[in-house]
Amino acid sequence: MSTPVTLVASDLDRTLIYSAAALALTMPDHRAPRLLCVEVHEHKPLSYVTEDAARLLAELKSATVFVPTTTRTRKQYQRIQLPGAPSEFAICANGGHLLVNGVSDPDWAREVTGRIAAECASLDEVRAHLRAVADPGWLRKERVAEDLFAYLVVERELLPEEWVKELAAWAQPRGWTVSLQGRKIYAVPKPLTKSAAVREVARRTGAALTLAAGDSLLDADLLLAADHGWRPGHGELAETGWRSPGTEALAECGVLAGEEILRRFLGARN
């Protein structure tokens, strides 16, 4: 009999890979882990994993269907060079694009955009509101991702504490969700979910077990849809105290959390 398929769907930024600012290397310098750069942007190193995490990830890819699951655009995702064999499937734009061997599945993209158009206020309306209520004193950039959702890049220390909650209250009845991740504030239509795309991959692969990890509120639906999940000791989910019966809250923070998540994935696979 063939071995049951395990699907591993993991968020990337601040879950498996980390910028220099997010590494959280709190130990003495001589005890810091060796790092491997997995992303270069504009000729500069941008994202890292530990060397142990690189080894664990390569092992995980050989034993499971590993699906990078990110809010990044396709272009942003393609900058990342993860250790191990290439993944057959990847999920970008928070579920808006299902990549199969690096190419977006057109049927999936069409299904997602159809649901958004039927259930949500338009992207133009949301962008107009963001521009109207954002303060130039703390707003640095306003961006659109894949013509699917919008995000702001802000000076976090200048951002009023209640502003994100007020934006979320405005967006909710219009079919949109709001998430604060580091210096970025995301406004995302509710049908645009990582979990829907992961369920489609599970259907195509016949996965018997789905494992997941993530750190932000945009990962909550992914964790709820998995048979078992993990969240690091940092990030939006940790800060809000988010929990679910199938999700384990780890104590580790920063790049060492990514390493521990990979150990948990390997330990729980079929």
Automatic annotation (TrEMBL):
**InterPro entries attached to this UniProt entry:** HAD-like_sf (IPR036412), HAD_sf (IPR023214), TPP-like (IPR024197)
A GO molecular function annotation here is: hydrolase activity
Please tell me whether the keyword Hydrolase is annotated for this protein: yes
The UniProt keyword set, sorted, is:
Hydrolase
Q: Does the keyword Lyase apply?
A: no
Record protein name field: HAD family hydrolase
From what organism does this protein derive?
A: Streptomyces mauvecolor
